[in-house]
Amino acid sequence: MMVGGLRSPELMAEIVANHEADMISLSRPLIREPDIISTWQSGERKAPDCISCNKCLEALYKGQQLHCAQQKPLAAR
């Protein structure tokens, strides 16, 4: 399984097709945009908005709800 910095569905498919990995894992992009996979499946091939700042993990360390630091938590919206 490959993880880390992959932001293009085409690149992910190429990696699997080339047998460089059997699976691709996403984490931070899904924290920012939980529906990004559905967006890609609908044909829209935009890059995720995640900037890989890792500040989403800081919330967990502070006992807060996991959320993208670039957005307000869902409860605060």
Number of strands: 2
Compute the CA-based radius of gyration.
Answer: 14 Å
- Which parts are unreliable, with pLDDT below 50 for 5 consecutive residues or more? none
Q: How much beta, percentage-wise?
A: 5-15%
Q: How far is the N terminus from the C terminus?
A: 35 Å
* SSE pattern, N- to C-terminal: EHEHHH
The level of helicity is 25-40%
The largest sheet, given as strand count, sense and whether it forms a barrel, is: 2 strands, parallel
Coarse structural class:
mainly alpha
Mean pLDDT: 87
- Gross morphology is globular
Q: Give the number of helices.
A: 4
Q: What can you see in these coordinates?
A:
The chain is 35% helix and 5% strand. By secondary structure, the protein is mainly alpha-helical. It has one domain (2-76). The longest helix is centred in the first third of the chain and has 9 residues, at 9-17. It is globular, with a radius of gyration of 14 Å.
What layout of secondary structure does this protein have?
Layout: E1 2-3, H1 9-17, E2 24-25, H2 28-32, H3 36-41, H4 55-61
Parallel strand pairs: 1-2
Give a short overview:
This protein is mainly alpha-helical.
Spell out the key features of this protein.
35% helix; mainly alpha; 5% strand
